[in-house]
Amino acid sequence: MFRRSLLGLLRLSLLTSFFLIGGCSPSSTLPTAEPTLTPVNTESAPTATATSVEGEDKQTHPLFVNPDNGRYFTDGVKIDGRYRSVYLAGAHTWCDFMDCGSTNPPPAFDYNKFLDFLQANNLNFFRLWRAENARGGEADPDFWFDPMPYERSSECCAFDGGNKFDLETFNQAFFDRMRERVVKAADRGIYVSIMLFDGWSVESKSGSHDPWAGHPYKLENNINNVNGDVNGNGQGEDTHILTNTPVTDLQEAYIRKVVDSVNDLDNVLYEISNESAGNSQDWQFHLIRFIKDYEATMPKQHPVGMTVEYPGGDNADLFASQADWISPNGNLDDRPVADGSKVILADTDHLCGLCGNLQFVWRSFSRGENPLFMDPYDGSFTGRGAPNDYDPNNANDVSLLLNIGYTRKYANRMNLTMMTPLPELCSTTYCLANPISEGAEYLIYVPSGVQAGNILNELGINRRPRIYLPEDGKIAVDLTGSPVELKVEWFDAGDGTYQDGGTIQGGSVQTFTSPVWGDAVLYIYDSRNP
């Protein structure tokens, strides 16, 4: 009874605040945001620590797992005797490497515009997508991909309408494009993960999806008598398990060609496969070792990643692998604390598909992860995964992208190598901290509007207002480990603005009240830092 009465009071309080603050009556039209695809640059707050260095986006060494903090990579630069951490924050879209679309040939992807988009959002990472099949999208078979890594023969005809593939002859234009795109990204300070294989290219995962029909390893599509359908079920999932067939040799030859094409570049990472089936782990383990062994004989070595299998993926396989970085599945709204055993790229693609919000971004960052967004981008790739009615200027995704960039600003300001996710230090449980007496830093994410959104949903109002219910916005932070004067800063995740919170004396548990009406970040640091 008490709980029901309390909910009624909260509803009354919420609705009163909602209508008064919004300046509208119950019958008024709710105000909507007017985002733009290219965000407006915001002025950053003063640098809090001396960890940023001149030319921090200049890549001078391939990434490797930071020995001083395994949650992040490093580029080999040392500051005060410890390796600088490189925080990867990014977005990616399906056709950023191979052109794709519902015509043959497909329309050309504007890659320079995509790089502009990443830079405008302060992002420094993306996945360079590959489709293994020449034809066959997720909606219907009339969807094409180009270029392919193999040359065409003089013999007609493959499923995509061209001549059959010669699997013993590489198409140099494919690898030239790959290298060119990685080089252009390097010029912008952006890291690129090269996707080597794709689970959505070899078997049906939904509805009328039949990518195997257009795959070069299907017997009818090549002149080399290669048949990747070992079990004869009309699909190609056998190509993503270890089999005693020529397919594995072809895949290893392809990997060698990729590595030979980009080994001298510093901004490269590798991803074995996007969402291969749940029994592909031994095949992926083998290819991880294959890349590491092959690059060990070469001038440079690059990180190798494994993303969770689908369907039937088990995160335990990722942690058991020799991969340097992983992308697990899991709960978008409650990110686990990264323990540093792997660099975790928390990708919405594997958490929930086409989804995400700014709350996910800050939860992921404050738990020691590197957040990524599976971005429908301009909405033109409906045959690959983009929804038919996608609006690239929708408020949620514009805000999400901006906030990934905001986390990167904080990552570059902080001494990230010394930061550890310590949920027990703050009442929100989203706390990244270095609780010491000299050089202390605490970054606390303060989520807002969750209770308000839930109650409005109960009342049939599809709205997530950036307002507080009673008691929202109060945060307790344990500053016992830092008995020094500390500076306080507030960040509004909704509009990208900063507020000076003055100074406090550390050494005890302190309670703060957010001045931000919405999702906020509380940043506390040693006042002796510049």
Describe the structure.
This protein has 530 residues and is of the alpha/beta class. Among the domains are: 73-79 and 83-134 and 170-205 and 252-417, TIM Barrel (Alpha-Beta Barrel); 422-530, no CATH class. Helices cover 24% and strands 20% of the residues. The protein is built from ten helices and 24 strands. It has helices at 2-22, 111-120, 172-187, 246-262, 281-295, 315-320, 348-351, 358-366, 395-413, 450-458; strands at residues 64-65, 73-74, 78-79, 82-83, 90-92, 99-101, 125-128, 144-146, 150-152, 165-170, 191-198, 268-274, 304-307, 325-327, 343-347, 370-374, 420-421, 431-434, 441-446, 474-478, 485-492, 497-505, 509-513, 520-526. It has an eight-stranded parallel β-sheet with strand order 5-16-15-14-13-12-11-7. Strand 11 (191-198), helix 4 and strand 12 (268-274) form a beta-alpha-beta unit. Helix 3 crosses helix 4, helix 4 packs across helix 5 (281-295) and helix 8 packs parallel to helix 9. It is elongated, with a radius of gyration of 25 Å. The protein starts with a helix and ends with a strand.
